[in-house]
Design brief:
This protein is an alpha+beta fold. Helices cover 43% and strands 15% of the residues. It has an 8-stranded antiparallel beta sheet with strand order 2-1-13-12-11-10-9-8, sandwiched between helices.
């Protein structure tokens, strides 16, 4: 396992990752598990395999497991419409949304847009969540007919969470604890609404202009089924063993063997990748990655070779996935991909561009006013407001104002809408983008106001006192 340790440690050092945890398991149990780094920057507490990490979207494959368990018990039919379990469920076109099935939610073929999520939904009571979700969906247009197109969206699994509660009569965390986690022996696996109670949890970190900063985020209860799970390397090892063997710690099956095999089969393909029941499925592997503003995780299982492994990190960056793919190459005896810092910049090119464009507008604005300011300071010029011409009104006020409104609409309305957040400042997954767009909006505002003001302000030279004194005084006419 020396090569695995070496790959993880060198990538942590190269990309400033505070801490990681790794587990390798087969159908008989855990083979190797280890922690690396620290729980939080500046802390002396080292990561252990029992420390909890948030795993984001890997939560989905546990939610789908619960759905299959209820299906095996005859409480859920996968081909039944969602409205059979959630009668209030409807989008802008109820005729289409009435056709969405449980199977569609599991496989992201519902047609619901990718931007949808429930991060802004308050409360934990199913009725309160249902009312808020119904309002959120009432004006949503499906991107495709149900069952025809793969469109990844957290909303699919947020709905499955409600269905599990409706069918079982239990709150989602309680059902998962009693019927999934405890039977699997995953005793330190829980949902993030409880994370503040566990001192054994790693602290998440997000990167602001290339520097890792501790970040704490408590997800809404309504998002637990899609992104709310916390677990550790040891518990994930038990889950991998279950996926390969089909056996729980107690010896009682969690789901039927045929159902487990069904979960590992692709229901729909997008290019060369298959998707089904929350998993990404290739020829040799079933995979799932997850990320939150302060965490990232990657899980890879090889059913044909009866082993699997997972890598957890208390920072949010794509290098976690790439490191785990290199571990796959190590285990399979394949050449590694060289992971260079230049290929994974700490500050993205888009965010750098936002800074450069903002700086350009600030510079142009300063240069626009510099001569006037120098004249005012030296008291050589004074200013007056001139009546604007029709061309000036159109170009400097109407056209310039229209562009300003468009810029602010894009930054403060469209970007949050497309990202599925209620406001720009709730886009916690991309702090550099938020700060960059804010700076750009302020720079453009200053530039726009300057263009309008400069178009009507006229500079006039002041006559010096000396020139006034030397001017001859003519006698009055007789």
């Amino acid at each position: 396992m020396h090569h695995i340790d070496e790959e993880i440690i060198q990538n942590m050092q190269r990309f400033d990752i505070p801490g990681m945890a790794f587990v390798l398991a087969d159908e008989n149990g855990t083979i190797y598990t280890k922690g690396y780094g620290v729980l939080e920057w500046g802390s002396a507490e080292e990561v252990e395999p029992t420390n909890s990490f948030q795993i984001g979207s890997i939560s989905k494959v546990f939610t789908s497991l619960a759905i299959m368990q209820l299906r095996d018990q005859g409480l859920i039919q996968l081909n039944a419409p969602v409205t059979e379990y959630l009668p209030w469920f409807a989008t802008k076109n109820p005729t289409l949304s009435d056709r969405i099935t449980i199977h569609d939610l599991l496989n992201h073929t519902s047609g619901l847009p990718g931007r949808l999520n429930t991060h802004d939904i308050n409360g934990s009571h199913p009725d309160a969540i249902a009312q808020q979700m119904a309002r959120k969906l009432q004006n949503v247009q499906l991107v495709a007919d149900p069952g025809t197109t793969y469109e990844y969206t957290n909303m699919n699994y947020d709905l499955l969470q409600l269905i599990i509660e409706e069918v079982s009569g239990l709150y989602f965390p309680y059902y998962m604890r009693d019927h999934i986690f405890q039977p699997l022996g995953m005793h330190r696996t829980f949902f993030t609404s409880e994370a503040g109670l566990d001192p054994n949890s790693a602290t998440g970190h997000r990167y602001i202009w290339g520097k890792a900063r501790p970040f704490h985020e408590k997800l809404a209860y309504a998002t637990l089924g899609s992104a709310g799970l916390s677990t550790n390397a040891e518990d994930l090892g038990k889950y991998i063993t279950f996926l390969l063997s089909g056996s729980s710690v107690s010896g009682n099956p969690i789901i039927q063997a045929d159902s487990l095999r069904e979960m590992h089969m692709a229901a729909i393909f997008d290019s060369s990748i298959g998707y089904g029941y929350g998993w990404e499925i290739t020829t040799n592997t079933i995979e799932k990655k997850g990320g939150l503003p302060g965490f990232s995780a990657n899980l890879i299982v090889l059913p044909g070779k009866s082993y699997g492994f997972a890598l957890l990190a208390n920072s949010k960056q794509n290098i976690t996935d790439e490191t785990n793919f290199n571990i796959y190459r190590i285990l399979e005896g394949e050449p590694l991909r060289q992971l260079n810092k230049s290929d994974f910049p700490a500050i993205s090119y888009v965010n750098k561009s936002l800074l450069y464009i903002s700086a350009l507008f600030i510079l142009v604005t300063l240069l626009m006013w510099l001569p006037t300011l120098v004249g005012w300071l030296r008291k050589r010029t004074c200013s007056s407001i001139a009546k604007p011409s029709l061309a000036t009104l159109f170009i400097c006020f109407m056209l310039n104002g229209f562009i300003l409104i468009c810029v602010f609409y894009y930054i403060y309305l469209y970007v949050p809408y497309a990202s599925g957040v209620p406001s720009l400042y709730r886009l916690t997954t991309a702090p550099d983008t938020v700060y960059g767009l804010t700076l750009l909006s302020l720079a453009w505002l200053g530039f726009s106001i300057s263009v309008a003001c400069r178009s009507v302000i006229r500079k006039e030279a002041k006559a010096s006192q000396k020139s006034k004194a030397s001017k001859p005084i003519l006698p009055p006419r007789q």
